[in-house]
Amino acid sequence: MINVAVIGSGGREHAIALKISDSKLLNRLFIIPGNPGTKSAGKNININADDHQSIIEFCKENKIDLVVVGPEKPLVDGLADKLRLNSINVFGPDALAAEIEAHKIFAKQLLTDNHIPTARAAKFSSKEFNQAEKYLADSVYPCVIKADGLAAGKGVIICSTFNQAYAALDSIFKKRIFGSAGDNILIEEFMTGEEASVFAITDGKEFICLPAAQDHKRIGDNDSGKNTGGMGAYAPAPIVTPELMTQIENLIIKPTLKALDSIGRKFIGCLYAGLMLTDEGAKVVEFNCRFGDPETQVVLPLLEGDFLQLLFSAAIGELDKTSVKYNGGCSVCVVASSKGYPDSYEKGFIIKGLESKIDDVIIYHAGTKEVDGNILTDGGRVLGITSVLKTNDLKTAKLKAYEALNKIHFDGMYFRKDISDKAFSHI
């Protein structure tokens, strides 16, 4: 029997904890620090995810057999390294491997050096403002400007004109809207197509890919407005056919893992490939070093088998590819966010309707807290209202998700109304 600690407090961690709680291998499950939703899956432990020493001490005291790290920041900051030094198994890459997300310039160089399909790009530092401006003056539009470092999923700006690109350059380099994450940037060609997210679970050499999902990054319907951490997702994405998934595995996932291993950055955990499906095939938009949010909320419910066995086997270097498989169903997650997100927003509003029970719906907590028995808003993305069907009927899944959403309310609640619509042209 396995004692598990999940690190994180968002909707992704709620989904991971809930799926692990179904395992026959599970003895005890802790979520550090967790949220009001994760209490139903295990025991929340009030330790900050950035407090690595306290996490290590807790794991030792409670004989933790596996730590699953949800967010990117603890991984980038070396939590997995420290846990492994203390002989604690971890599902999640060490700091060097996590740089595939932490530094977009490193990731781009890795892809380019190993002939892995991606957009053409040029890199510039904040000291090269004039050179970057000249490059933009000669660029074809639209183009994409990316902050090199971690920016909570918001460090990408799509520019339709030179004036927009110059304004973005000024905001990143001079106004420092992304802080030190914007000390260096990539200016990329704009790729045309639909995006898809693929999670590869790996022990560093062997891997399996979970059902493909499609995220909705923009704040507004029809992909309008600013980028966010994700306003909803659905799975499986029908645009990723079995043939295309085979190409993704052979041309992107396999060579990326091999390239990382060859430079001493063996990747253990979930390699998240954010892809653009172009006329020339799938190309890498970005890599993340952990499960995506909100894609995790729709992918994990579609797995039958033992998810804990999958994660544990990867962590100990003996990936069990038979531990899970796709169950044939579908899922749609709609994010209920605070008014003003992804910019400034108020929090502390009472959430009503959470007691409503609707068949085939999971309500994941993302940015919530409990005060005097009330559940309050406590983040930009507050809830992930997620329908899960046993059959692959996305239209019904969408209806169920929005039916459930209409029973929930808090002041300033905002959500997109078109989550999963992109799928319908492919069905």
Any overview of this molecule?
With 427 residues, this protein is α+β, with helices and mostly antiparallel strands. 28% of the residues lie in helices and 29% in strands. The protein is built from twelve helices and 24 strands. The chain has helices spanning 11-20, 52-61, 72-76, 79-85, 95-102, 104-113, 129-137, 162-173, 242-262, 295-299, 307-315, 394-405; strands at residues 2-8, 26-33, 43-44, 66-69, 90-91, 121-125, 143-147, 156-159, 184-189, 194-202, 207-209, 214-215, 218-220, 224-227, 232-235, 269-278, 281-288, 303-305, 324-326, 330-337, 361-365, 368-371, 374-377, 381-389. Strands 3-2-1-4-5 form a five-stranded parallel sheet, sandwiched between helices. A hairpin with a 4-residue loop joins strand 10 and strand 11. The longest helix has 21 residues, at 242-262.
Short key terms for the protein model shown above:
alpha+beta; single chain; globular; 427 residues; Rossmann fold; Dna Ligase, domain 1
Strand content: 25-35%
User: How many E-type strands?
Assistant: 24
Q: Can you tell me the overall shape?
A: globular
Which regions contain 5 or more consecutive residues with pLDDT less than 50?
Answer: none
Query: What does the main sheet amount to?
Result: 5 strands, parallel
Number of helices: 12
Helix content: 25-40%
Q: Per CATH, what is the topology of the domain at 2-94?
A: Rossmann fold
Q: According to CATH, what is the class of the domain at 2-94?
A: Alpha Beta
Class from secondary-structure proportions: alpha+beta
On the 0-100 scale, what is the average pLDDT?
Answer: 96
Strand order of the largest sheet: 3-2-1-4-5
Radius of gyration from the alpha-carbon trace, in angstroms = 21 Å
Terminal CA distance reads: 42 Å
Annotated CATH architecture of the domain at 2-94: 3-Layer(aba) Sandwich
